[in-house]
Design a protein that fits this description.
The protein has four helices and no strands. The termini are far apart. With about 90 residues, the chain is an all-alpha fold. Helix 1 (about 5-20) packs across helix 4 (about 70-85) and helix 2 (about 25-40) packs antiparallel against helix 4.
């Protein structure tokens, strides 16, 4: 997949998540959050009105710190595709 194709597929996956109206499992959302932040090079500190949620977000980002931006995009796309393929 070329860089341009990857960017298009990533944007489509993001749009698919944003357009979905049902709630997602919390662990799935944390994984999406971390890979999205890494894929978009958004290094702002995680924040939430609840310290525990901020800690979970920080931990999720810490766990993927050694992957590339393209790997984060690919993983995000795969997470989205698998979620919609296997959800019931």
């Amino acid at each position: 997949m070329t860089s341009e194709e990857l960017d298009i597929a990533f944007k489509e996956a993001v749009d698919r998540i944003n357009d979905y109206t049902e709630p997602f499992p919390a662990d799935f959302l944390l994984r999406l959050y971390a890979y999205y932040k890494k894929a978009t090079n958004d290094y702002n500190r995680p924040s939430s009105s609840k310290p525990l949620i901020t800690a979970f977000k920080t931990n999720a980002l810490f766990q993927i710190q050694n992957i590339t931006q393209d790997e984060a995009k690919e993983t995000y796309i795969n997470l989205v595709n698998n979620y919609f393929l296997y959800r019931k």
